[in-house]
Backbone:
């Protein structure tokens, strides 16, 4: 953000966000989460498909110090409900298009459709808690082929090690563009995302 505020950070079929916009909108999401008591070692579900809002959501979750749980809108409602319950997610970030998939959910819901407009005049006032290396970064669920799906919990230090390895081994630069092709509910997606 400091080096390239006006460079494109993320793009989807509906538009794009610069690093500055992504930073500002994710600050807004982080503050909304912290206002609800969210922080380290807590999980928040993200249900929005392949959209730029997904990036805003997971960066906001991490800025608030917590972990994200990706939820695929193609999953059966029973699997989404199981994952939210099993992960203990008391917060859910969702685009309105998929709101009916989670009408059972009783936790705090943040609509990602309204973040851009609501963040326009927003000033960050919350004190955000940076995660520690041993804090949970994300939880991705297995396919459940041997029974019920299980949440695989990844810490920030593991994520950082992976990203450092990929950055060095692939000789990446700030000019590179990465296409997200892996499902965001599959562990390999973090390479594309980060």
Residues:
């Amino acid at each position: 953000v400091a080096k390239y505020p006006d460079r494109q950070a993320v793009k989807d079929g509906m538009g794009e966000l610069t690093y500055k916009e992504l930073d500002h909108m994710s600050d807004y999401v982080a503050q909304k989460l912290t206002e609800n008591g969210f922080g380290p070692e807590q999980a928040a579900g993200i249900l929005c498909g392949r959209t730029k809002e997904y990036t805003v959501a997971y960066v906001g979750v991490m800025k608030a110090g917590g972990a994200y749980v990706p939820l695929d809108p193609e999953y059966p409602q029973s699997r989404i409900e199981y994952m939210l319950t099993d992960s203990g997610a008391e917060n859910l970030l969702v685009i309105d298009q998929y709101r009916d998939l989670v009408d059972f959910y009783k936790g705090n819901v943040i609509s990602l459709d309204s973040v851009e407009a609501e963040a326009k005049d927003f000033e960050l006032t919350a004190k955000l808690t940076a995660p520690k290396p041993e804090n949970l970064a994300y939880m991705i669920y297995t396919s459940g082929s041997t029974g019920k799906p299980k949440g695989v919990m990844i810490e920030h230090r593991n994520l950082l090690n992976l990203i450092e390895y990929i950055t060095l081994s692939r000789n990446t630069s700030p000019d590179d563009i990465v296409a997200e092709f892996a499902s965001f509910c599959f562990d390999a997606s973090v390479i594309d995302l980060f």
In short: The mean pLDDT is 90.
